[in-house]
Design goal:
The chain is an alpha+beta fold. Helices cover about 35% and strands about 25% of the residues. The chain has 2 domains: about 150 residues, Aminopeptidase; about 180 residues, Aminopeptidase (3-Layer(aba) Sandwich), CATH 3.40.630.30. A hairpin with a 2-residue loop joins strand 8 and strand 9.
Length: about 350
């Protein structure tokens, strides 16, 4: 099972093409993600059948306890997660290449939770972190996501084939709010330029301040823009009102889904429902590309009292809840692992 040689441009392109086009593909498994995370180390492992890549595992490393490294495969690997022997083989190959001071190799694939799959991984020697973790920030990535399925899953859902059926998929008041935004003069543009990212960042900072949460620096998003510009896999959506940007969103198109990753808004203009207009345009992007899923991202829980869920669920009103398997931990150094877990207690 080979390691990706980043000097082999042909193989890197093949690796990237698999990550981008396989139905299970994820932007966090693209080698460009390793370039974005410039302060992390990286190892790329892949598996081939008859000379064709059919599984990959992108692993990034960072010091997570003093002197010891966490190795993390974000939303990975991209592989058949039912084939645990394959997953373990990917891990074994990665560990050969990883530094000796790695204490943990953590996977968190986007695969549905089931008691049966959880038990199989535990029997195979993994520590699984899912339903026993009560807070969404107890995992690196949220385990519970709101997802709109264009193929019509869930009670009362119909297959979404055009903009009319997409609009009907939402709660009635969400339809009204999208129409209200348009009536008030809110318009939405999309692009991948530096100016688009800078306009997004202004609303992103406003939202972070309003919610009293930390935010990434502008340099992070500018690097993202430089790496993905003109690939077609990255878009910034900007809602304009009264000659200024009042809401925004960043999305990635990988595999069978659109991942709505970042957002911003100016609450001063809340009555014009610009964030709803942004979602409408982003959801139409997924429809135009023939996607199966639109991932709104994580929520604390599937309850109306959860603010994230309350907003996102109105768009995915008919859709089943997406609960993922969570983190699959392959522990290399038990002492380092226990020290690491203390920060989540």
């Amino acid at each position: 099972m080979p390691l990706l040689n980043l000097d082999d441009q042909k193989k890197v392109a093949e690796y990237q093409n698999f990550v981008r086009t396989d139905p299970r593909g994820q932007v966090t498994q693209d080698p460009l993600w390793g370039e974005l995370k410039a302060n992390w180390g990286h190892v790329y492992v892949y598996h081939e059948t008859n000379g064709k890549i059919d599984a990959v595992m992108t692993v990034l490393t960072v010091e997570a306890v003093p002197g010891k490294l966490l190795a993390y495969s974000g939303r990975g690997p991209i592989a058949n997660l039912d084939d645990i022997d394959l997953i373990k083989a990917l891990i074994e190959e990665a560990l050969i290449a990883l530094p000796d001071n790695v204490f943990l190799l953590r996977l968190d694939p986007e695969v549905p939770y089931s008691d049966e799959l959880d038990a199989r991984y535990r029997r195979a020697g993994f520590i699984t972190r899912n339903r026993q973790i009560e807070h969404m920030h107890g995992n690196i990535q949220p385990r519970k996501n709101v997802v709109l399925y264009y193929d019509g899953r869930g009670e009362g859902a119909q297959k979404i084939t055009d903009e009319e059926s997409l609009m009907k998929h939402f709660k009635r008041d969400y339809r009204n709010q999208i129409r209200r935004a348009a009536k008030d003069g809110v318009t939405v543009t999309s692009g991948d330029s530096q100016a688009d990212v800078e306009a997004f960042f202004d609303t992103y900072v406003l939202m972070a301040k309003a919610q009293q949460i930390t935010h990434r620096p502008l340099s992070y998003f500018l690097r993202m823009q430089q790496l993905w510009q003109k690939t077609g896999f990255f878009k910034v959506f900007l809602a304009h009102f009264d000659n200024q940007v009042v809401a925004s969103g960043i999305g990635f198109s990988y595999g069978d889904e659109i991942w709505y990753m970042y957002a911003g808004s100016n609450r001063q203009y809340a009555k014009h429902y610009a964030p709803y207009a942004v979602q409408w345009e982003m959801l139409k992007w997924g429809l135009a590309l023939g996607k199966t899923e639109y991932d709104f991202g994580g929520v604390g829980d599937f309850v109306p009292t959860d603010g994230l869920y309350k907003f996102k669920h109105g768009f995915a009103y008919h859709d089943p809840h997406a609960e993922y398997i969570g983190e699959l931990d392959w522990v290399v150094d038990e002492q380092g692992y226990q020290e690491y877990l203390k920060q989540f207690q």
